[in-house]
Structure formats: structure tokens, C-alpha cells
Design brief:
Layout lengths: L2 E5 L1 E2 L2 E2 L3 H8 L6 E5 L5 H13 L3 E5 L5 H14 L3 E3 L6 H11 L4 E3 L4 E3 L4 E3 L2 H14 L4 E3 L8 H11 L4 E3 L6 H9 L4 E4 L1 H4 L9 H14 L1
Amino acid sequence: MTEFIFMLTHHDVTVKDAIKVFNEVKDTGLRCVGCKDVGLSEAEYEELFKCMRKAGMTTFFEVVTYDENKHFSGVDLAIRIGADYVVGGMPWFTEKTLAYIKERGADIKYFPYIGKIEGHPCVLKGEVDEIIEDGRRAESLGVDGINLLLYRYTGNQKELLEKVTKELKVPLIIAGSVDSFEKIKELVKHNVWGFTIGGAIFEKKFAPGGDIKDQIKSVLNFIETL
């Protein structure tokens, strides 16, 4: 079953009231929840992830930076707060990140980006075959999965989705701009491992007029119908 990962983020930043929002939605049936490495203090992240673990959630910590020092600071923070997954690292950091996690003896899974990542918010560029080849390289290095910016790809998104789900073997998370039931249906049809939604939940795109809890229930209920 494709997992919906609710990200406590808006405009690429963890929301200031993340703990309050999480406590409001933890009983909706969610299994997976996460946030980005910017927006809160370390003490707040520790408290947030403590609440997530207490609720039995699988947790995700997203690190998005082009700066190597900031990247490894984010990975280190993910390890310290006890995240289950660290996602979103730039492709050129993959090999060093895997080595770093191993050296630390950390029990954390790593899902980096693949392809040519540019800008902020990030977009994905390059030819489909080049992205697939980058995915194969990541697989050969031993990643636990891949974080793909499918709906921020500047090329043929449908072709990329068809090929990446057919040719890559590791679990796949689709991140960024998942903002409609049509896209969710497409992802479930292709049996992707999971997808993240943050901003579209806070912008109430799935249950107009409803609160955050209603948005999450609408997505979960929709997946159940597929």
C-alpha cells in the first residue's frame, strides 16, 4: 500500500506550531509524518519527534541544502532526534552520507534525491534516462530508497514515472507539489512506496472549507478507495 507522509511544512519550512498541529491530527489514521530541518530549534525538534514516537508514527526528516556542511549538520540532527528516515539529500552527497551514517552506527534509513537538482524551491532537470542512471548509481551505493521530485520535473513527468517505477528497485518517495487527488491516484496506480504532502494540506486543497484534520482524512480516505 502506498504511504501518505504528512509533512509539517509550508513554504519549505517546518511550521512553528508543528507540535500543536501534530497533536491535532495524530488520531486521523496517519502512520507517517515528518518535517524539514529548518524552522524549529533542536529542543523543539526533540520534543516533536518524542511526540511522534509516542504516537507510534514512522518519522521522516528532510534535509534540503546545496551546502555540504549544512547537509551533514541536518543528517546529524536527524540522528540525534531519532528520526526513522532522513530524506532529500543532494545526489552529490549520497556516498559520503551513507558512509557517515555507517560510521555513526545510526539506525536510520536514507532516501536521497536523484537527477539534476536546481533552484529553491528545488526543481528536477535533465533527461529521463540520465535520472534513471543516477538512480541506478544510488542503488549501487546501497541507499534504502530514493526521494524523487517527480512533479517538479521540467521534462515529461509521465515518462519519468513510468520508467523510474519500472527500472529502479528500491522504494520510491515522491516529494514536492503533490497537490491533487489526480496525482495521488497516478502514484498509487504505479505502486510507489510513498509520497509527501505539506503545503497542499495547509492550503486546504483536498477538503475545501475543512480544517487540517479534514484534509488529512480526505487523503487517507481517497487512498482507501483506490
